[in-house]
Amino acid sequence: MCERDSAGSQRRQRENRVKLVIFSHPEFLRSQSMPRFARMLKSAYEARGHVVTMWSPAGRIHRLFSRTRYAKWAGYIDQYVLFPLYVRKALKSISPDTLFVFCDQALGPWVPLVKSRPHVVHAHDLLALRSALGDMRENPTSFTGRIYQRYIRRGFRRARHFISASKKTRDDLHCFGRVNGISSDVVYNGLNFPYQPTPKHDAQEMLRAAGFPHSPNGALLHVGGGQWYKNQAGLIAIYAQYVAQEPDPLPLWCVSPQPNAAVQLALRKVGRNGRVLFFQNLQGPTLQAAYSYASAFLFPSLEEGFGWPLIEAQACGCPVITTDAPPMSEVAGDAAIYIPRLRFGADLDAWASIGAAALISLLAESADARSRRAERSRVWASGFDSDRSTQAYLAIYDKVLGLYLAPGSICHAT
Questions:
Q1: pLDDT in tens, 108-124
Q2: How far apart are CA 44 and CA 67, in angstroms?
Q3: CA-only gyration radius of the chain, Å
Q4: pTM (predicted TM-score)
Q5: Which of 41, 286, 378, 412 gives the lowest tally of CB atoms within 10 Å of its CB?
Q6: What is the torsional sign of CA 163, 167, 169, 174?
Q7: What are the residues whose beta carbons fall under 8 Å from the beta carbon of 348, sequence distance 6 or more?
């Protein structure tokens, strides 16, 4: 009886397997977040018994010109000439109950290749497209960049099923992407590392081992990729005003690339008793220690698609100061402290003074108030669970497959 039950369970599991092909960015572009997202999807789906294949350009032409000024254009040949040839050939052997998953709407030029087959496009942010359309005056786009973004949009508009990382991204997808799909869902990202508070002493020891300086009274923390929308110059302006008002200011630790020209200019205004340090390539446990040890997390972004560091910090109990524009206000919840978004052409010093005042007020909170805020932050961040996100993705995939495979879905998210 037990053997018969086991065999039946195994048979049902095989029947419930979803066959997936995930389109991902080519490795030669050396981007971080999207290939990591694609690998996270693959790992999560395979762990549930689904059959997953990854498709991305091989980079044969790019390798020949990788050290020349033609590298970008060689990469375009790999992505938009050779790779479509590979896909068309590979499609001949793909079963009709396979779902094609685009891990980023920026892969739009490949969407028409499978537009008549079951497919889903994950949308993360529309910042490049909005810049190309002139909506982001902080980030003017070249003529070729505008053409390229319209090319991408022309592709992903052919899709019929979308999953956005936030309500803000979905709004932008419809407004600027001009999509007219059959389905357009929102699934918030889940944490890609099991962030939780690290005891202060342990966190301090881990940070010291990772090369962080001794800072017995705590530190301020920022995590970001240094892109224009991270507003790192504005972050430094806030810190400069804070330093000007505090006799013994906390240091600012930036887990981000080395400062660009705009950030270097802002650093010149930081008083002598201020300390701004930059760190790169922190792994999950060390980053968790930084979040746990920090007295406040500063994230004054102009725009985001989602804003992973917000919930990473909150999961570790670190109080967050961010801007009041979505999706920051959407993702960070009511445990965060909000300051106005820095508007284009606004008085930077006046804006920074608001941020500095919010920071000083936060640091002055009583121990009980900080403890309550930390608990609210952890409870809020617990809602961004990776398993829950994976289950939501699979449920949508199942729904999409059901639309293509009449009379109903043969695949069920497990």
A1: 999 999 999 999 999 99
A2: 36
A3: 23
A4: 0.89
A5: 412
A6: positive
A7: 233, 234, 237, 342
